[in-house]
Amino acid sequence: MASTTTHPDPESGSVPSQGTTTTDSLPPAQSAPFSDDHAAVLPSWKRTVILLVVCWMTLPVTFMSTSIMTVNPEIAATFSVPATAISTANAGVLVASASSALLWLPITTIIGRRAAYLVAVAVFILCSLGCALSDSMASFTTLWVLSGTTGPFFLVAGQTILSDIFDPAVRGMAVGFFLGSTVSAQSITPMISSIIGTYTSWRIIFGVQGAMALLGGVMAFFFIPKRSQLSNVSVETKKAKNARNILSAFNPSNIFRLYKFPGILLADLTCGVLAFNQYSLLASVRHIINPLFHLTSPMSSGLFYLAPGVGFLAGSIVAGHLSDRTVQRYKRHRHGLRLAEDRLNSSLPWFFVVLPLGTLLYGWSVDREVGGMGLPISSSFIQGFGLMAAFNGLNTYAAEVHPEFKAAAISGKYLTQYCFGAVGVGVAVPLIDAVGVGWAFTITAISSLLGGCMVLFIARCLVRESAALPRPKFFDKGEAGLPR
């Protein structure tokens, strides 16, 4: 059995000294085990409450980008602009979301994870109320885009919190619930907003998301722990103490330098193509479903989002359980050695069978107008199930592949993911108009298959690098970007 890898000294940022066992010195079949096999010792009730809190905060964040998909014409009419202007602004929100890590990770390093979490909640609430009260398209777009910068931070912080408090053997299930709440909300919120838009004003939507964020902030204040309060913390995280360190914290290379690891780069690109698939589905519903089935109100099209939403939730939970079992099976096979890539093996059936099947069935059933409303609804459920099942292993892999840099790795994943999501929102409708629904979703299915090939390469061919990445001098404790 190969010896355990020694990670770099958190004080000096040095790489392992001579004689230290790393992945490079291990046989290809035996990468070094992780340093995060033991999570913080907390009562089970407290872990459950923390999980509920971080899951709740995904709801208002999701409202931010998906709630207006069913009320685009109503917002456009209010500001006397074309409906495409609202879609363009929504794509801008996703671009702002992609850049979230470049802003909030440094802030977290400066003031701490818990404090940054609460500040982000406050910014989100104020921007939501500002959007509800906006009297011009310019002010509405500005505040909407600004709120977009906070969204992925709640996802990054939530995932790092879960990796701190849940052991790897059950971490996939916890991440599955977290991811399930995120993606299910992306289908539930359009339905809620469509009801609001039908019977009241679209401005109420932003008031509702602000109220939800306020409730989440109150719960976070009482239950989200400081990193230093978790019992598996060996050294307390340092914060910036001078202007030079503060400026160095905003260096974007702290995230981009992790792309030197092929596993991280390929996993992030795969998350990107999955996000393209997801947002292409969500952004195009009203454009293709309403004319096909002669739906006229926002509420009628909003109900259609329930099918992929249920698929999102079911796929996240089922895949989370299966990924945990896969990890345990491979660990027994290797006599106790656990590798991050093991979890990805559970994702392969979703990538190569379920997701492309659901995507193609949905696209061509709508294109050829076959199966009535039942076939598009059932195929969108299959697509949503496969999509989130494929996502699950990648989300957990991002936190595990280099645990000493997990926040920066997760942030880079969301950066890539939201960039591809913005492309999906921006091009879905024009692509459908240009080539038709069937061929548009065929392109989407092919991109997902390419993502599956990248996951297959990571899981079967790529040896995980366990030699430490040289740590930026400022991030001398914890991990690059967000304190663990």
Structural overview:
The protein has 19 helices and no strands. It has helices spanning 44-56, 58-66, 72-79, 83-98, 100-111, 113-133, 137-148, 151-165, 168-199, 203-223, 243-249, 253-256, 262-293, 298-303, 306-333, 348-368, 374-400, 406-435, 437-460. The longest helix is centred in the middle third of the chain and has 32 residues, at 168-199.
Count of individual beta strands: 0
The general outline is globular
Seen as an oligomer or otherwise, the chain set is single chain
Sheet with the most strands?
Answer: none
- Indicate the radius of gyration in whole angstroms: 22 Å
Task: Give the helix proportion (percent range).
Answer: 55-70%
Topology order in helix (H) and strand (E) letters? HHHHHHHHHHHHHHHHHHH
Structural class: mainly alpha
Mean model confidence by pLDDT: 78
Low-confidence stretches: 1-35, 233-237, 463-484
Tell me the strand percentage band: under 5%
Q: Helical stretch count?
A: 19
Distance between the termini: 29 Å
Transmembrane segments: 49-71, 83-105, 117-137, 143-162, 174-196, 202-224, 263-282, 302-323, 344-364, 370-394, 415-432, 438-463
Protein name: Transporter -like protein
Domain Major facilitator superfamily (MFS) profile: 50-463
Biased composition (Polar residues): 14-25
Brief account:
The protein is built from 19 helices and no strands. It is an all-alpha fold.
